Amino acid sequence: MTGSKIPGDDRFFYLCALWQNLAVASLSEKIKQKAFAIGFHKIGIVRAVPLKEEETHLRAWLAENYHGEMRWIEREPEKRADPNLLFPAAKSVIVVALNYFTAHDHEENAAQGKVSRYAWGDDYHDVLKEKLRELLAFIKSENETAEGKIYVDTAPVMDKVWAARAGLGWIGKHSNLITKEYGSWVFLGEILLNLELEYETEIVPDHCGTCTACLDACPTGAIVEPFVVDSRKCLSYVTIELRAPDFPENIVKDLNGWLYGCDICQDVCPWNRFEKPTEEKRFEPRAGNVTADLDEILSLSPEKYAEKFRRSAMKRTKLAGLQRNARALKKSRQK
Ligand code: SF4
Description:
Layout: H1 8-38, E1 42-47, H2 53-56, H3 58-63, H4 77-81, H5 83-86, E2 92-99, E3 112-115, H6 124-142, E4 148-151, H7 159-165, E5 170-171, E6 177-178, E7 186-193, H8 213-217, E8 223-225, E9 228-229, H9 235-241, H10 249-252, E10 258-260, H11 264-267, E11 291-293, H12 294-299, H13 302-308, H14 318-334
Parallel strand pairs: 3-10
Antiparallel strand pairs: 1-2, 2-7, 3-11, 4-7, 5-6, 8-9
Helix pairs in contact: 1-6
Bound molecules: iron/sulfur cluster.
Iron/sulfur cluster binds at residues 172-174, 208, 211-214, 268-271.
């Protein structure tokens, strides 16, 4: 359409809309540039409209009781799917990913237990929240009407589904998000924002193809079918989330040396050959956090435990849970 064919009033509104679109696109681009400058490795922005059951499969998963004792997941499932129930002003969801891979490996040592890679360094909640706060402050400095909420596993936000929607990667058959650039070694975080932004138009299609490496490698068969994990069998769930004082007897033989969490399905994933070390120094392992000495864990007092795991994601099990795991791991090696 040429300018001369637009009547006067229409031309005004056309120019206003054009200016508004340019401003939205410009702010979106600035947010992305700032996110990279802060250290995030990937970012995508999508409209804050509810997730669909065919995206989340949440109700079907809950119906099978695959969440085990994580009863908090079954509370308010509608809140998990609808960002407006968390933050009624939400118009946009900004999803970020932070690579946490560091170039270290577990030691195979009968006196030690393996710790999941995500818990080697400082607690990712603290690291991501700090970065997201900086990003939100930047957005507010660019637009004084901006209001937002930050989420890093702190509210019922289905981060992997939002990340897939925002084009950061796809959800693999092991149910973790996989990025083409960093594999699955990424932490996810979100900002719900009250502003309209420019939205991603492309998602990353499933690149698992015919691969079944993660299903084949899982020692407990926890990936009961592609994309579906039965938490009750998952070593990560059993060693971190399960609060039972006694370790499940049927899992002990399958521990494969894991004390806290498990990375087997991610270690075997061919997409993790694209792993690259992160620049975030806070994810470098703390002493004794890659493989932990079992006798030391068993001898920790509550005070020593609090001191050793201050600001570490490993404190989630609490001392009793960690010592329960250490005892189970020792038992698994006696068989
Ligand atoms: S191991 Fe294979 S099937 Fe499993 S998530 Fe990776 S690519 Fe997908």
